[in-house]
Amino acid sequence: MPKNELTVIVPKGLSNFAVSAIQRLSYLSPNSQFELENESIRITSEQIFQNEEMKRAVLFELYRAKIRDTTQDMQKLLYRAAFSE
Question: pTM of the entire structure?
């Protein structure tokens, strides 16, 4: 059976978040394989997927990981302020 393949270039400044994005994408799309290759993420699957939708999902997860990382300190401060005695 032919594989469906796609390579998405990781935008500059988001390469630090590629592993985290791949972990989440692997959970969300268990029938697809995600591999980090240089500055891109390669997706292969036995199932057919829409290239634009998959690209959008990969970019969304990269930005999501960056936002989570950059706002983590603020989240901790807010949590402490809300729940401290």
Answer: 0.85
Distance (Å) of CA 58 to CA 1, 10, 30, 66: 24, 9, 14, 13
| Whether the Cβ atoms of residue 62 and residue 18 lie closer than 8 Å to each other | yes
pLDDT digits (tens, 9 = 90+) for 22-75: 999 999 999 999 999 999 999 999 888 999 999 999 999 999 999 999 999 999
Q: Structurally, how many domains does the chain consist of?
A: 1
For 41, 68, 81, 82, the CA distances from 74, given in Å and listed in that order, are 29, 10, 11, 12
Tell me the residue range of the domain where 10 lies. 4-83
Predicted local confidence at residue 70, as pLDDT: 92
